[in-house]
Amino acid sequence: MSTNRCFGEWDEGKKILETPKYFESAVRMQRDIKKNSLYQFSGAPVHEIESEQNIVGLSIFLRTNITPDSMKHSFGLIQRVGNRTNWLYDLCVYPPHQRSHVDKLKRKVFYGPHIHTLNDTIEIGLSYELHDWNKWFHLFAKNINLQIRSNDIIEPLAGELLL
After folding, report:
1. Nearest alpha-carbon partner for 136 in 66, 74, 89, 78
2. Does residue 156 have a cis bond before it (omega within 30 degrees)?
3. Distance (Å, whole) CA 42 – CA 23
4. Higher model confidence: residue 143 or residue 131?
5. What is the C-alpha separation between 95 and 160, in angstroms, rounded?
6. pTM to 2 decimals?
7. 22, CA 20 to 30 Å: which among 48, 61, 106, 120?
C-alpha cells in the first residue's frame, strides 16, 4: 500500500528476518472508523524463540483495504528505533492485473503480489485468491520465520454481514 518506507540497516534486518521468532497475542483485524474500507492490526511484542526475549521495537503491522471493486493486503514486519520506523519485510497483495509498485532502481513495474524485503523488491507468482487472507497471513509468517502461537485470529470482514 503506497507510502514511503524506510528499509533499515541491511545486516541487522537480515539477522532479524533469519531469527526464529514467535507472536502469541490475538490477531484481530479491526475496521478503521475514519476510513470505512480500511482494516488494520498492529501487534507487539515479537519474541526470539531461543531466548524467549522480546525483540525490542519489533512488531507486525497488517492492513487490508476493501473497496467494491478491489481488495489489497499488506503484511509487514517493522522495527521502531527511536522515532524512526524501519520496514524489514512487507508482503503486498494486489490483484494480478493491478499495477502495484514501481521499482525505479530496477526500472521495473510490478503487477499483483510482491514483497519488499530490506533493500529489494521481489515479484511473487502465487495462485492464492485475494480474499484468502488466512493463506497470505501464514505465508507472511513463514517467510519471516515467525510462529503464530495464538488461535485467536480474526481476519478482515470476519463476522460482518455483507449485503
Report:
1. 74
2. no
3. 12
4. 143
5. 22
6. 0.89
7. 120
